[in-house]
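sorry for the late reply, my laptop died twice this morning and i had to redo everyting from scratch. anyway the thing you sent over, i finally got around to it. pasting the sequence first so we're on the same page, its 318 residues, then the predicted structure underneath. double check i copied it right bc i was rushing
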Amino acid sequence: MNIPVESGNLTKTPDYGLFITVDQFMKSLTQFLFFIYLLTAHFLCFNPVHAKDIPPVFETLVKRLQMDGMDEQYLQDLFTRPELKLMPQPVAKSLVRKEANLNYAQFLEKDSVDRAISCLKTHMKILKKMESHFSVSAPVVVAILSIETLCGTYTGRFDTLNILVTQTLSLEPGVYPQVYDRIPVDERLDLTPQEIKKRLARKSIRAYRELKALIIYVRDQDIDPFSVKGSIEGAIGLPQFLPSNIKRYGWDGNGDGKIDLFQPGDAIPSIASYLKAYNWREDNNYTRKKEIILAYNPSDYYATTVLKLAERLADYWH
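ok and here's the structure:
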């Protein structure tokens, strides 16, 4: 008869000649359980959707970004961040924002001109290097800096990623009512629903392009996407570039291998790079210079003010 023989911690099964101690059994069980733990952790790591789902309002956008070739894992991490949120209030405000109501005259007042003169002196070395390379005058670049961000002292307070995501989704059924309800009543009465949707459609098309550019930029530059603050329209940095313009015109002026538009060493030559790309020449006539400034910001008030301020600054630049 084949009868198992027990002796202390030893169990023998004569049919197979196999000896397993209790200690060995417990060790094997521990190893097995640890393996299951590692397998589960691995599965959750590489399949994060099972760990934390993307909020439904963003699902369609994420799929669209994936179809455009964006990294699935990066998007998964990005769109499950707690900082991600819709911003219907500023999007509604930007919808009825009128350029004619902006106070461009303030940039020609004494305090503003003095600040711009100080900017000329502070960044003299960078500006001279920029002039030498691009043949764009320092006064016009500083004039743009002054009007865009008060010479870098105010670059915007809005979460750029959230602004662009909200603009992109602004016509979605779950987002449109939030934007519509936040349009000031007086302004809403002057617009038909069709006109509101038409404006949002234009913003949505542009915002999706800029959102893709922003995601690529922060990923490649290893920047926390939620650390980037900018304007109500999604422009960022000292020169207030839209994200898609960074790759086209951004310039690594300080040679550190990155383009950081929040640093004067990169921001100043990036403005010059932009103007040069539109064939800026110092001997261009006034009309041609204004056309180029309008390419930077399509506002007649803006372009006129830039050139007036640059003319005043020229007296302080030798």
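The first helix runs from residue 22 to 46.
thats about all i looked at so far, will dig more tmrw
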